[in-house]
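Consider this today:
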Amino acid sequence: MRPRIPVGSPFQLLLLAASFALAAYAGVRLLADDWFGVALWFVGAALLHDLVLLPLYAVADRAVVRGLGAAGHREWVLYVRVPAALSGLLLLVWFPLISGTVDRRYRSATGLSPDGFLARWLLITAVLSGASALLLALRLRRARKRRPPVAH
């Protein structure tokens, strides 16, 4: 008997086909003007991620896991990972403006001041970390209340 391949509903298949069509349209439009520059950027970004960034954040994650795991708090790792990942993603997306390397181009293209991106990124990082710490504290407090008293 041959295994049956699950197929989604007609609506799911239509959405999948529409997403592929939209991706193909975006790809054609993106590659129409400067296909070599886009391909070079894509390959460079993949190499930078795979050869530089992935090992860096893998080492950082392993250090967090070992540090918290050795202290007996391995379940706390996600409370460090999530804000760090979101902050890193924001840094990656907004790095040229956070670092100030494109101030003149940004001002001439938008007419807006590029000042404040670093301060806003730091503030968002602090809020994400604080919210994560608050959620962890609430979780620990709830767990402490549920724990039955220890009889001596």
